[in-house]
Amino acid sequence: MAGGKVRKEKAKAGGGAAATPYQGGISFHKSKGQHILKNPLLVDSIVQKSGIKPTDVILEIGPGTGNLTKKLLEAGKKVIAVEIDARMVLELQRRFQGTPLSNRLQIIQGDVLKTELPYFDICVANIPYQISSPLTFKLLHHKPAFRCAIIMFQKEFAMRLIAQPGDKLYCRLTVNTQRLAQVSHLLKVGRNNFRPPPKVDSSVVRIEPRKQFEVNEKEWDGFLRICFNRKNKTLGSIFRQKKVLSLLEKNYKTLQALNLNPDQQGAMEETNDVMQFEDMEMDDDEADDEMEVEEGGETSEFKEKVLKVLKDNDFENERSSKLKLREFVTLLAEFCKAGIHFS
User: Fold this and answer.
1) Contacts of 208 (CB under 8 A, 6+ apart)
2) 213: Cα within 13 Å, side-chain hemisphere
3) Are 184 and 210 contacting, i.e. CB atoms less than 8 angstroms apart?
């Protein structure tokens, strides 16, 4: 599967630590996320839990030498395999050439993050874990929407995707993903199911795109960056921070000066006053120095405007780590009604 995720024979003596040879001389590189599933029962279980229909077009990311690919071809109508490693592409071609399955396999050589994906019904993949986040959101923004994706992730990443309010791993990634899809856990996969074994355990999850909460994407992103700035602090405390209020007030004044309404905010990208929240995220155990804004002046008036939204909607003493998705959507809408925007 992805990055060489296939069954691999026992490494021969003399193989380096960074790469382990497969039969035929193909080497797999751990640094590139190339860990091969050696348990055929696990491959069968993944295919079974995928719920593949005979009419399905299946997207496989990183097929490696094709162990999972073969099972997918047998289960569905067509497999579109995206593979970045030219050696694996050749191996796939050799493996299925001249077989009844060959005319149902389409191979795309390239980086999946840079490749325009064709139509597919279902995605099944064991991906290099370093691309987990960007790949997840690339899939979730793919049009037309697919039915579901069955993906193997590093265990902690998977647990973040399925976390619930109050869980330790509940974070901005959780909320962003669950706004776009329903995520459920399917399988735990120990590291010893791979050769060479990775340093972490894995999990297989099911991702099903769903009807989205309608929000302005840029507003949503800026808003969540602030909320999860220190997720275990109260929202009242977070929105009292000098840096947060300064950025929000700057944006507020610019919007007022340009006399824009929320539907016209795209024009803000033309100015130099667009808010930047990329550096807002901090660990919750950071010191709280200078969190409070000094009283007096215009900043104090704006501060009261911001806090009024929190107080009037009973969010001042709530914590991001415990808020449900719908509550984030509600709070963002209330800020926008008050003319406080995040993009």
Assistant:
1) 147, 148, 181, 182, 183, 184
2) 19
3) no
